[in-house]
Prior knowledge:
By secondary structure, the chain is mainly beta. It has helices at residues 2-33, 51-54; strands spanning 62-66, 70-72, 76-84, 92-97, 101-104, 110-112, 115-117, 128-136, 142-153, 156-159, 163-168, 185-186, 197-204, 208-215, 221-230, 233-240, 247-257, 264-272. Helix content is 13%, strand content 44%. The longest helix has 32 residues, at 2-33.
Amino acid sequence: MKLRSTVNILTTSRAIFFIIFLIIILASKSTYSYPTGVSGYTKKSGTVGCGNCHGSANTSVKVEITGPASLKTGETGTYAVTITGGAGSAVGVDIASSNGTLVNADNNLKVLNGELTQPSRKAFSGGKYVFNFKYTAPSTIGAQTLYATGVSSKPDWNFAPNFAVNIVNTTDVTEGKSQMVGTYSLNQNYPNPFNPSTKISYSLAVGSIVKLIIYNSIGQNIATLVDGFQEPGNHEINFNGSKLSAGIYLCSIEAKPVDGGESFKFIRKMSLLK
């Protein structure tokens, strides 16, 4: 009886020790997996972000994606994620894309499960940290999205606003360059930013089948303003965003000449304030 009690005590003690050991290992993994990077923490994967380990997002931490708003299919653009706010003593990032390829640009990132993250813990310099990377557009035309989640220090983290990149054919005209094909054009909406209404004007060289569409930042069709034949010349249309949330929207035009000439395509970014 005494021997059995001793065995039971030893067995129970070993079980408790094993449980404590597992807890320590799991806690260590949670603590030390972050400094060498993570993946699956952006809005692409959901809205939890770093919440399981760091608590709720801190709006004082600002995470911003910058770079070209339009690329040709297969083209590579240079982008950056800038993190400001918070202590800045244990900086990390997770960058993802809806489609296309992400590549490190300055050895401050590594590829992990198709996403980009820091290979080691970083710290602010001059009140911020900038992660530079390259994004290669897929072969599919249309709007793609870049996502990012940034950590300043535990528990300070936040999501970046989603960044839309419009992918166009290699023969299309990209944003920021001359938009003229003959006398085709799509002018910047005015006013911009706007609240709630703005005017969109464009010109057609010849009679064309026109599609004028407003997309949100993740490529969803918000409004089809024109879909049909229009005569050559100048055109203007009012767009009302009173029922939309504040943010970045894309105005896309495609005009196919009825005489069989080359189609005109162009994208303009519009900012809606509330």
